[in-house]
Amino acid sequence: MIVTLMNLLRACWRPSSNQHARAGSDIAGRQDGLLWYKDTGQHVNGEFSMAVVQANNLLEDQCQIESGPLSFLDSGPYGTFVGVYDGHGGPETACYINDHLFHHLKRFASEQNSMSADVLKKAYEATEDGFFSVVTKQWPVKPQIAAVGSCCLVGVICGGILYVANVGDSRVVLGRHVKATGEVLAVQLSAEHNVSIESVRKELQSMHPEDRHIVVLKHNVWRVKGLIQVCRSIGDAYLKRSEFNREPLYAKFRLREPFHKPILSSEPSISVQPLQPHDQFLIFASDGLWEHLTNQEAVDIVHSSPRNGSARRLIKAALQEAAKKREMRYSDLKKIDRGVRRHFHDDITVIVVFLDSSLVSRASTYRGPSVSLRGGGVNLRSNTLAPYASQM
């Protein structure tokens, strides 16, 4: 049991991985203090840029880009998969999603020999079920894993179609060129599930009419049961199954009243739309970016600068804004170490996916380059894990 736990933890903090990457090579990205970045790379439908900056003591954001086969069949769908997983309560759920969701998607795409909204929905369900199995097994020795969860944002470009699935409050924004004006407009493509949004609060209240305290305003922030801002996630077993909402789970997570149906949901909001020649790029990011930049500000930064380093440039803009809000210099903010840094900003993940319209239109016949890359964080020495594991 302990060995399994240690392996899961180490998986969360391994450096960015690529099956063809050499350690320390640019193929696998670069590290600059708390910032990991891959300034440019090729995917089936164009170029991409990735960056992750760590704020928590343990990086809770995970991400990946997979480009090439989207099933296990030679004749199956081909394209690009992007995943941004913003964990909360710990890194375990986001790490689990990073290790399993894409595999499940390929499995269901193989069964249907196609990509579809149904494939995405089933992949989310299988990932949630798998993580709940981990929670059940670890509950006797590590009950707090029941209070760990993650937002989960996925984009799949396949056959000229963009599929977006989301639970939580990460966001994908499209940069769309307007021929008449020459502008590039920001178009948000993902639905968010944060109860700070009035419509989301009302939807949750309508689903739980018997519970007058399903959403509570606490310290001027709306939270589900006064505990969490998102109402959809992977994990968070303590708010989905009552058997995990009891001792030995910490008292601060336990609800006083029993519940008879899940409070949170893992069902993703899914959209399917054809990509157009004037669709230029997509920005996938955890909410750490969006709390400092508007959709249009982010799109303007990408549009007005070279493609190379786009994701890193967005993170820098967000950190400059975070420093400004605290009336400090950006250079001083960068000197603050992980853990303490969380008081100034969240972990931030950004993946910018550029769309080459000629490649998108050739999607059914084009078969080049395969990519498998994960964003990295600060590498902890193996002896750093021991105290953390023993506390669990």
From TrEMBL:
Domain named PPM-type phosphatase: residues: 47-355
EC primary class: hydrolase
Keyword Protease: no
A molecular function (GO) term: metal ion binding
Gene3D superfamilies assigned to the protein according to its UniProt record, in alphabetical order: PPM-type phosphatase domain (3.60.40.10)
Cofactor(s) needed by this chain: Mg(2+); Mn(2+)
GO cellular component: plasma membrane
Protein name in UniProt: protein-serine/threonine phosphatase
EC code(s) of this entry: 3.1.3.16
SMART domains per record: PP2Cc (SM00332)
Catalysed reactions, semicolon-separated: O-phospho-L-seryl-[protein] + H2O = L-seryl-[protein] + phosphate; O-phospho-L-threonyl-[protein] + H2O = L-threonyl-[protein] + phosphate
